[in-house]
Amino acid sequence: MDATVAAGWIGGLAGLGGAIVGAGGAIVAGWIQQAKQAEVARAERLESRGYTAAQRALSELLAAREVLAAYTREPGSAPNPYRPARDAVRRAEAEVLVIPNGRELRHRMREIFSVYRADRWPESSTRNDRTKWRTRVIVEGITVLSCYLRGDALPGPSDGYVRTTSLMVPEEPA
User: Fold this and answer.
1) Which CATH number fits domain 47-166: 2.120.10, 1.20.120, 3.30.70, 1.50.10?
2) Membrane-spanning regions, if any (predicted)?
3) CA-CA to 4 of 20 to 30 Å: which in 22, 52, 91, 98?
């Protein structure tokens, strides 16, 4: 075989090999890029789902606060606020449960919802007192959810919340 022909074959095979390597690299790079885009899209969906659920929970807590505030302003004229406020708080709690990647938020809100539901207020307290205390608990939830929605660090318990929970009668051991 002539040296010129051999050089032509070598150049052709090298070109073909380079094309195969280039095509393989392009396929692998495309696959990696697609996987990364899918990961980013999933993270965006989760973030959007969490944001939407937190907004709905916040709306429910705002509605519950308004019901309780109306009763506090005029205790005799407004109907019993507990059922509509309780229902709004339950809807808020359901929304918080589906917030992804929010373990600390769910923990804080679970505590707040537990305090709201607890019926361990002093027997000497009036309905108006209990309504004000429950309103403070709801305000704590509003504050925590607002921080989450803004992307801020979750705050520790507020002084008003701590004072309110200190009024509760301790649970008796089981």
Assistant:
1) 1.20.120
2) 6-32
3) 22
